[in-house]
């Protein structure tokens, strides 16, 4: 089985590799640089989902893969939170028939100073967090979640949960009409 990932970010590519390998066994994962078609910092569920779907579709279109996978993180409004926003990773999986399945991982809040920079300066959360901890490659490694959880959950693991959730209908095709 061949799986194309609409990203070259190791935290995304390895998450896809590990989940697909665990479910399907032998799998070839091909990272493909694509344009998400949404702002670098998506805001709102619609924008975030659109980014994940665009990544998945472009990945499969540019290859002969069986599946295209897109992962997009974005902020969305949540009442009663400290900042008013939470971050969530959405995953889209598209197959050769064009069927799309979606999933997302756990949501979490960024520090208020990071959210302020996003909305006042237009800075992407990954960049703002990288600057906060003096690591410009943070989003390609443990991610903000790795810093915020003191290493208890890293970005790859967060992405793996989103990928697994997007595969739930494919693991149970008879219940989802696939």
| Structural class by secondary-structure content | alpha/beta
Order of helices and strands: EHEHEEEHHHHH
Q: Count the helices. How many?
A: 7
Span of the ends, CA to CA: 18 Å
Please give the largest β-sheet: 5 strands, mixed
**What is the β-strand count?**
5
Find the CATH topology: Maf protein
CATH class: Alpha Beta
Can you walk through the features of this model?
The protein has helices spanning 10-24, 45-61, 112-121, 125-132, 143-148, 155-171, 173-176; strands spanning 2-5, 28-31, 67-77, 85-95, 100-104. The protein has 178 residues and is an alpha/beta fold. It has a single domain, classed as Maf protein (Alpha-Beta Complex), CATH 3.90.950. A 5-stranded mixed sheet has the order 2-1-3-4-5. β3 (67-77) and β4 (85-95) form a beta hairpin. α1 (10-24) packs parallel to α6 (155-171) and α3 packs across α4. It is globular. It starts with a strand and ends with a helix. The relative contact order is 0.16.
């Amino acid at each position: 089985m061949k799986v194309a990932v609409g990203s070259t970010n190791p935290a995304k590519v390895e998450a896809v590799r590990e989940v697909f390998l665990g479910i399907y066994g032998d799998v070839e994962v091909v990272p493909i640089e694509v344009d998400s078609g949404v702002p670098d910092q998506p805001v709102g569920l619609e924008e975030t989902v659109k980014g994940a779907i665009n990544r998945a579709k472009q990945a499969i279109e540019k290859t002969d893969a069986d599946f295209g996978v897109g992962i997009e993180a974005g902020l969305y409004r949540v009442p009663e939170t400290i900042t008013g926003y939470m971050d969530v990773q959405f995953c889209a999986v598209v197959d050769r028939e064009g069927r799309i399945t979606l999933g997302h991982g756990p949501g979490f809040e960024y520090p208020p100073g990071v959210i302020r920079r996003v909305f006042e300066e237009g800075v992407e959360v990954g960049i703002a967090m990288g600057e906060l901890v003096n690591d410009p490659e943070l989003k390609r490694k443990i991610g903000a979640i790795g810093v915020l959880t003191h290493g208890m959950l890293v970005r790859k693991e967060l992405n793996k949960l989103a990928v697994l959730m997007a595969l739930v209908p494919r693991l149970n095709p008879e219940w989802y009409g696939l």
